[in-house]
Model the fold of this input.
Amino acid sequence: VIAGSNAENGRTLDQVEMFQSDWLDLVSRFRRDGIEQFAYVGWLTPILAVAGLIVLARGKRWLAAVLGVAAVVPLLFAVGTSFPLYAPLWQHFPPLHFTRVPGRLVPIAELAIAALVAIALAWLLRRAPASRRPLVAVVVGLLVLGDLLVLPFRPTAADPTNAAYAALRDRPGRTVELPLFEPGIHYGSIYDYYQLQTPRERPGGYSTLAPPAAYDFFWGLNRLNCGIVLPLDLDHLRALGVRSL
Done:
């Protein structure tokens, strides 16, 4: 955050709740509805980590405590206010005020879990016959790989019947889409898809080889993105034949 701004004291707890994970996100290998909530740690893998923690606690309790805390605390933080102690901690521990996505600490837990799984595997290998140790290692490795297989992405549905573009079919003139994107930046390619529904000329466009005039249009009118429209901007758009935004 920026010193001197109205956010200089950090974010609100409501903003944290927008980005926090849910308990189910810890065991769901699919991304559920929400923003930055994916925090899957597996099913078998945590069980192996607990086994490794038990093995480690027999000899090095201090290390078991460190890895146990490192594995559990970030996951509890990731679920944010779903963990009853998070809100009181947030109120009395100022550094948490600057965390927007509690799940950003999950990689710490993943490293600790990986270490504990390795300890559990080492314990298994020591007790397996020497001739079968490679097989045990391969089987456990495949089980962990299968357990950690995730499918967080899915295709976004196209929008072939967009109502806004359908309304343009009976309107003459060129079109300008907002927000304006610099012609060589790929974000503007989404407009190319919509133009297939209502073909017409656009002063902006998208192309890595766009002519200078397209760049001039963007740099001359990108204040429209901020809601700033000067009289000379309207005159410019009318002179270009633009009739619809």
